[in-house]
Amino acid sequence: MAREKPAKRKAKSVPLSSDAIIAAAIDLLDREGLDNFSIRNIAKALGVYPTALYWHVPNRHHLIARLIAALFADVLPEPDPDWQVWLKTLFRRYRNVVRAHPNISPLIGGHLVSSASADLKLVEGILATLARAGFAGEDLVSAYNAVITGLCGYATQEFAHVFPDPDGDLKASLTASVEGADPALYPTLAAERHLLLNRALVLRWQNGTESSLEPGFEMFTDALIAGLAQKVHRDGNLE
Amino acid sequence: MAREKPAKRKAKSVPLSSDAIIAAAIDLLDREGLDNFSIRNIAKALGVYPTALYWHVPNRHHLIARLIAALFADVLPEPDPDWQVWLKTLFRRYRNVVRAHPNISPLIGGHLVSSASADLKLVEGILATLARAGFAGEDLVSAYNAVITGLCGYATQEFAHVFPDPDGDLKASLTASVEGADPALYPTLAAERHLLLNRALVLRWQNGTESSLEPGFEMFTDALIAGLAQKVHRDGNLE
DNA sequence: ACCTGAACACCGTTCAAGT
DNA sequence: ACCTGAACACCGTTCAAGT
User: Fold this and answer.
1) Residue B111 pairs with which residues in a beta bridge?
2) CA of residue A156 relative to chain centroid, distance
3) Do the Cβ atoms of B152 and A154 come within 8 Å?
């Protein structure tokens, strides 16, 4: 009784468009996850032949680039007098998008696709903020790269793709090795094992959707921003 | 004349083993890149049927987990009296591994696979270092997560997967949009465009292999470490 | 201009069969 | 115990053909 109407999404008549394709792609990714995210399944959801998409989108990579651009279209925060507050807000907004669409994590992670649809307003926003903070020249580029890394870094880890584990083998083996960690060899790990299990990166079998890593997000972003602030301050680049 | 012997890797006789499979997988990933990295091609390199691998390795995910574990087996630095120096060394060693095997970036990025072969010595090393710095309880977990993020974050971005772009369309469109950025709309971007093009994340068509992002790495890791130091200092968690 | 439909060269994985 | 070999249910993408 759970599978009445198999999501007959397209009443035909409506013509295909690249926007409709991206929308269907986002919907599919959110509903079915990365493992079922394919050109063919997007086409199926649209009630159209797979090859029909190629009239509107050059290939899978560009489709993903546009999908990412669409999801992050509104991350840019309003201006703020305090550059540190602005950065923090940006980090938070970025994380919220990933949290709302966690399955994009692997698509952002180690891929350069995003460049295919660069959001210049976002780039300028970060650059202008860092320039205002006191960064210039090469240091501005470095600080910008540090910020972008911080932006993607935490969220993509927190909401990383969990590979299929029907029998719960991963949970079992992680629990066993953490619970059974020899205090002589791993004193800190053993002492804090209950806080760490499924809540510390590399010791998880679930991602941020089921087991939030928000405290670490606060720590990470605050530390990064504070470190950047200290850098400009120490170098005497004050306005 | 460049393709004499097509790498006839296996003289047969030598029996298959999971270690041999991982070694062949690393070799394939390094030589051919992610786009040709498949179970079938690993098998081909070993001169064996694809399905033969399944006797030694449960599936693709576990194979990748073991591959990652093998590559990072030696990242853990020697002990150092200064916890900040130790962390910096760890960051640098991690980046060096990724730089030597850049094609793993997408496999680390937004995936939780690494958990399948957690390196407890590495985990303990980071935890012990942070505990020594003054972190405890929940803050220790948060700081640990921040460090792991920093570890993976920058390197996976710097050496991110570049999708095939035979006609150089990406380079052309990025160059055009950055070079032609309206100074009225994008003042900072326009002013520093020569420093940014292909060297700022999201404005690149090459990754760190061809266009190093090391200055940003220094900035990022120094800022993160300094920020963490400030955090423990401010909270008065000194020993 | 836009979509169909067949086709190509791939995937990961299961499972029975061989030795 | 370890590998072969066929088979299944998928991929992304090309290209000719339809309308």
Assistant:
1) A161
2) 4
3) no
First vs last C-alpha separation in chain B: 66
- At residue B31's C-alpha, the angle toward residues B27 and B35, to 5°, is 105
In A19-78, the residues whose Cβ lies within 8 Å of chain B are 61
Mean pLDDT value across chain A: 92
Concatenating the DSSP letter of every residue in B168-187 gives -HHHHHHHHHHHT--TTT-H
Any B CB within 8 A of A13 CB: no
| H or E segment and range at residue B25 | helix B18-32
Q: In this predicted model, what pLDDT tens digit does every residue of A55-100 receive, in sequence order?
A: 999 999 999 999 999 999 999 999 999 999 999 999 999 999 999 9
Q: Which residue do the tokens 């790990």 mark?
A: A189
pTM, whole model, 2 decimals?
A: 0.93
Residues of chain A numbered 111-170 and touching chain B (CB < 8 Å): 111-116, 118-124, 127-128, 131, 137-146, 148-150, 152-154, 156-157, 159-164, 170
Q: What is the 3-state secondary structure (H, E, C) of B77-115?
A: CCCCCCHHHHHHHHHHHHHHHHHHCHHHHHHHCCECHHH
Residue owning tokens 């399948």: B116
Task: Categorize the per-residue pLDDT at B192 as very low, low, confident or very high, splitting at 50, 70 and 90.
Answer: very high
The pair of three-digit structure tokens given for residue B171, joined into one six-digit string: 């380079």
Q: What angle do CA B1, B6, B12 make, to 5 degrees?
A: 150
E strands in chain A: none
